[in-house]
Write a structure and sequence with these properties.
This is DUF4834 domain-containing protein. The protein is mainly α. The chain has one helix at residues 2-45.
Length: 83
């Protein structure tokens, strides 16, 4: 008797949860989609204007630009000759 009562209650609870999910999940997903759409619209409003292709914008130029190798030294690369 207790097992039958437990099964009946659990089936009833699962049925009610399923029906509530059918009602509330679409509303939840719709609110998430609306928030994402609003965020995307805000991002589009704050985007930087597009520059023509081929232009370069430098945001940071370091103050101290010392070369580690003097200009008269040149740049040497060690290599082995393969025959």
């Amino acid at each position: 008797m207790i097992l039958l009562r437990f099964l009946l209650i659990s089936v009833l609870v699962l049925y009610i949860v399923r029906q509530l999910a059918r009602i509330f999940l679409p509303m939840l997903f719709q609110s998430v989609i609306n928030k994402a759409t609003q965020q995307q619209q805000r991002n589009q409003n704050y985007q930087q204007p597009k520059r023509p292709e081929g232009t370069v914008k430098v945001d940071y130029v370091p103050q101290n630009t010392k070369n580690t190798v003097p200009d008269n030294e040149g740049e040497f690369i060690d290599y082995e000759e393969i025959k």
